[in-house]
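[Q] Does anyone have a clean structure-token version of this?
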Amino acid sequence: MRNDTATASAVLALTGGPANVRHVTHCLTRLRLTVADPAAVDEEALRALPGVLGVIGAGTPSLQVVLGPGVVDTVTAEVERQLAAGAGAVEASKGSDPTPQKGVLAAALRRIANVFVPLIPALIGCGILAGVNGLLTNAGWLPGLTPALAAIASGFMALIAVFVGYQTAKEFGGTPILGGAVAAVIVYPGVAKVTAFGVHLSPGQGGVLGALAAALLATRIEKWCRGRLPGALDVLFTPTVTVLVAGLATLYGLMYAAGAVATAIGTGANWLLTTTGPFAGLILGGLFLPLVMLGLHQALIPIHTTLIEQQGYTVLLPLLAMAGAGQVGGALAVYVRLRHDTTLRTTIRSALPAGLLGVGEPLIYGVSLPLGRPFVTACVGGAAGGGFVGFFALLGEKVGATAIGPSGWALFPLLTGNQGPAPAIAIYAGGLLTAYATGFAATLAFGFPRGTTRGTVPPVTDRAPAGSA
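[A] Here you go.
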């Protein structure tokens, strides 16, 4: 039986105690800790904890403990509770990270991800309901229920700009409700009456990108006002000036600019798949694992959300999900080839279920990356699966996901496309099988150094560097 309280207590103890933890947050699968003294972290003991699927960033101030979907939410909450209750504990916050980051780009992507990651559960829930409603509508079943399901599934997406604005202000140090208030201008039906430069606005124009920009501007204005107004005036004028100035800038500038960018994203994604389908699939499926390893995949979250808002689904996620399938195929090949490496085979057995459901970190950091070559051959498998899905896009059969977050088998309930869910599911399944088979075959043929004949490989310390061939 899972004990999240014990897991949280053990994680804190093995990361140097509460006083060593400066900041706590999480994404869909990882508990993210900023520690004052990286040397105080016991990486090996942390990896050995029951329920811990992997450890990333050991030896650096930014430590990530891979726990998996669902588990990470409750463990993070428990870590924060214990930090708040502990004597001398450093403040834990889900807001911005006070520790300076080495990479400006990585820090910016992380903060943007922090805006969108809390929205993923609602995207998943509403996406599944939208898929169920589509099936019921197409089959003509339960006609009295489908309007209610449509309202439930669509309500969140109709107001997603407000939630993005709220989360943006929260992440960047503003008042969340003011960020939401400014972003609400974007979806207000009355903006259709606003004319600027001879052009009428449309409700929702600019979408989540406009909401992100509007809330960022509102946060800057709010901070500027609070540093210049005395307390009595601050209460009245700061929120008024923030909403007024940021609201006008949103109506007469940001909505147009963000709308143009959002349109370009949708047009570009469609052009990419309908014009260069297999090639685009090869590139996206083949390079996604390195992007995940470097944390650069976070830049895709606003793009996915924009495509879902525009078209009802993102055509990029099914292609990118092929990377995880290639990883599964590669891990199976390692399991078959290294029959006498009992430790590695145990790791693969425990990590495969998570890998099949789209949680790839345990296999990446526990198997393929330490071995080196299997990481490259797993990418080959992902490229093959992406090319398969991209080929059908070139033929006019697009596969999309109505929500972000899940991949692997967990993505099946969220699949749809321009021809409906049934063809999309069939093509996606074919892509998974292609990625599994190619990742397995490529790893079996090229994933091991010459001379590996006894079913074992050198210890981790002697293995090839990550990603080496």
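[Q] Thanks! Anything notable?
[A] Strands lie at 21-26, 30-35, 54-56, 62-66, 195-196, 199-200, 400-401, 415-416.
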